[in-house]
Amino acid sequence: MVYLYKEIIRYYSLLRFAISLLLVQFLYLIKKGIYSMLEHIKYLPAHVLGMHAAGHVTIGDYEKALRPLLEQQVKQTGRINFLLVLETNIKNFTAGAWCGNIRLGLKYFTRWNKVAVVTDQDGVREFSHLFKYILPGKFAGYKLEELHEAVKWVTEVK
Prior knowledge:
Layout: H1 2-32, E1 38-41, E2 49-53, H2 59-77, E3 80-86, H3 95-107, E4 112-118, H4 122-130, E5 138-142, H5 147-155
């Protein structure tokens, strides 16, 4: 019985060590910008740009993930149809990310056509409706369970 107890302790210690190494490696990848918390949604039609936000979102995520895709979208189509799936608390956006968000919004002021924000945060969905008074284009907020409807709306061509 003592032998079994010692083996369990040994495996438990090895498991803790392995998890620690994985965590350190993951944090290193985030710091280097290799693993972005703002991911491109690639299954959408070419006339729609989609992003998925999870975890901690920084200005680096905007610069590396979103800015080049927005520039490409404007060059290809002349306007922006955008889907944002927000599966993180809005508090996980750094101040720099907020500034990047505003800066990109203003840079492409006349290019916004449709924006769908998908999140379970009521306040964020309501806040996204305010953009229809600030920016040209159509804005809609959806719950995560309504993702299919959001995709249908933002990809619709009229």
